[in-house]
Every structure is written in C-alpha cells, then in structure tokens.
C-alpha cells in the first residue's frame, strides 16, 4: 500500500483513539458521580449496571451505525450534538474537574453521614447524596449513556469517514475501553488535563466537519426533491 494512501487512515485512527479515550473517561466519571450519591452498600450495583448500560448501548449503536449514517440529516444533527458535547467538555476542563468522581473513588468514599476516612467525593456528588435511590442513580446513568454512546459512535464514524476498517476498530476499542479501562482513563484525564484539551480540539474538528458534510448532504437531497 502506498504511504500516501496509508496516511489518511493513520490520521483517522489517531482521531478515533483520542475520541474513545476522552469519551470513555467522561462516561466513567458520570458513573462514579452517580454511584457516590447513593448509600455505600448500593454503590457496587449502581457502578455495575451503569458500566453495563454504557457497553450495551455502544454495541447497539455500533450495530446500527450504517443505518444511522444512511439517514439524511443525521450527520448534520450528529455534528450539532457533538458541538454541545464539546461545550460541556470545555466547561468541565475550565473548572479543572473539582467535582469529578471515578467509580473506584465512589467505592472508597464515605457516606454522606460519615465522618473522616475514604477518598473525598466531589462537592456536586456529595450534595446529591441526600436521598438518591439506586433506581434514580441507574436511570440518571442510562439517560447520560444514551447521549454519550450515540456521541461516541457518531464521533468515531465522523472521524473514520470512508475507512470502514478504522470505523470497526474504533467502535470495538470504545467498548473495550469502557469495560476494561474506564477507571484508569478517568484518573489519567483528571491528572493530565492536556489530554482532555487535545480530545476537545479533535472532537470539535470532527463536529464541524460533520456539520459541513451533513449540510451539503441535506442541501443536495433538498435540491433533488425540488
């Protein structure tokens, strides 16, 4: 294979890996914060179902990626959705992530009624801990997972573009990272904030590219109809 032909695939793969790392870490933090808001005895159940829902939704959206991308206007809508994700990421990065709680930190954190001991939970999670039920925490995670899993699949598909092999690798990688390395990634993003900023730039580029391509797709389709 010519090196000039290989270069676009390597660039796309690099973008996909960065997207997967950032979004897997963000999803883990959502799970951790929700778990920190329930009593200690119930946290393991919340974390298990939260991560299971994230993996299941990623697999589901990955299986219907081709059908999703065939819908006229979805590329444009996906780009707008990713821009909203970028805005949330920007706000989190600017606040230095004081309220972030990873799943393992949630397991070590004391109950809201506890005294010293264990890792400190984020202020938002601690404030929410009064009276949050297991069902409410799991539902909160599932709702967030639907958006974040769709974001992940659309972002990976947008970065992979016309490279189906890269798309498959990216979607498999997103599932593996969420299932096996979410805690590690969450801590890595918290410790090395620059990784989050690089991921934000890449996802913003992918979002703007999807909006550009999606707008042309919608305009061309409208012109054909008229």
From TrEMBL:
Belongs to the TerC family. It is found in: Membrane. It holds the Pfam family TerC. It comes from the Bacteria. It comes from Azospirillum humicireducens. It is a multi-pass membrane protein. Its main location: membrane. The chain crosses the membrane at residues 12-34, 46-64, 70-87, 166-188, 194-212. This is TerC family protein. Keywords: Membrane, Plasmid, Transmembrane, Transmembrane helix. The keyword Cell membrane does not apply. InterPro entries: Integral_membrane_TerC (IPR005496), Integral_membrane_YjbE (IPR022301). GO terms for cellular component: membrane.
